[in-house]
Write a structure and sequence with these properties.
Number of domains: 1
Strand content: under 5%
Number of helices: 4
Order of helices and strands: HHHH
Length: 55
């Protein structure tokens, strides 16, 4: 976590946790979930992790 890039956007820094997650995490997670679903894999969690690591 410490090596993760930090935001420089002052609006996000002061945003409540839910708003911060909705603006930063949810879009990437949603697109990765769609990709895993379209792939039709049996290794859903592994494939999701691989896709998220690429982003």
């Amino acid at each position: 976590m410490a090596s993760a890039p930090q935001t420089s956007d002052p609006a996000l820094k002061s945003a409540p946790p839910r708003e911060f997650l909705n603006n930063t995490v949810v879009p990437q997670l949603a697109s990765a979930l769609v990709e895993v679903n379209n792939k039709g894999s049996r290794r859903v969690v592994s494939d999701l992790g691989e896709i998220l690591m690429k982003q």
